[in-house]
Amino acid sequence: MIKLVCPYTIKLHPDHYLEQVKDRSRFLLDLFMKTTGKIYDFTLYTDDESYEFLGRPENVKTKYFPTEEYDFIDDFKVELLHILPPDTYIADFDLYLKEPLVIDNSYDVYIERYEEEANWEVYQKEIDSIKFDEIRNFLDSIDALKTIPNIGFFRMNNARLRKEYSELYFEYKKKFINLCRRDNYEYRHYSALFSQHILNYVLSLKDYKVYQCDQNNCTHLNGQYKYRLSENDIIKRVTKKQII
Fold this sequence. Notes:
This protein has a single domain (3-238), classed as Spore Coat Polysaccharide Biosynthesis Protein SpsA, Chain A. Helix content is 41%, strand content 17%. It has nine helices and nine strands. β2, α3 (48-53) and β3 (62-64) form a beta-alpha-beta unit.
């Protein structure tokens, strides 16, 4: 049976919806424990400040990580790729499963799913909003299918892929963050764009074997919209597939 780790920090959410994040995170974690957490053993990877915010839940296995050096929320995931124990997968705690995944270790990379091409418009708007030519032009130049890999579920078994991806991710993220700090430019909301679109690029270079979660088995409340939903609305979306 696989195990899950759930990286979480309150520190790196954009200020404009931080209060909404604070209002919903405890509820989302509790819902995860009632669904996915009943299927798989999981450990919360977090920092002390974020664990305090979650109410220090005693019934959740927790491992502390220093997050002070992170610029994006997904820095946490990319670094974890290199230290995950065998048969252990990264999962957001807004990923709700109905039953165990049908999974084995024969894949190069594991993702939650490829997003529909219709969602590309959201990413393109984010790219267009970047004012730094080098960064914007690189992201625009990626000649890959506009079906972005969602890393709400994530692992890489292929060491070469893991190295190429993480090096390219940190190279462009560092350039971007330095420019943003120089110009006092808000950057935290670009996390998924960098982590997922750069993965899109690296996967396009070779015929990698990619695992996707069965969408009939999972509900992933990815994105900012979940923080605007009421608790009842969240439950309605999840219980279309899950029985709580």
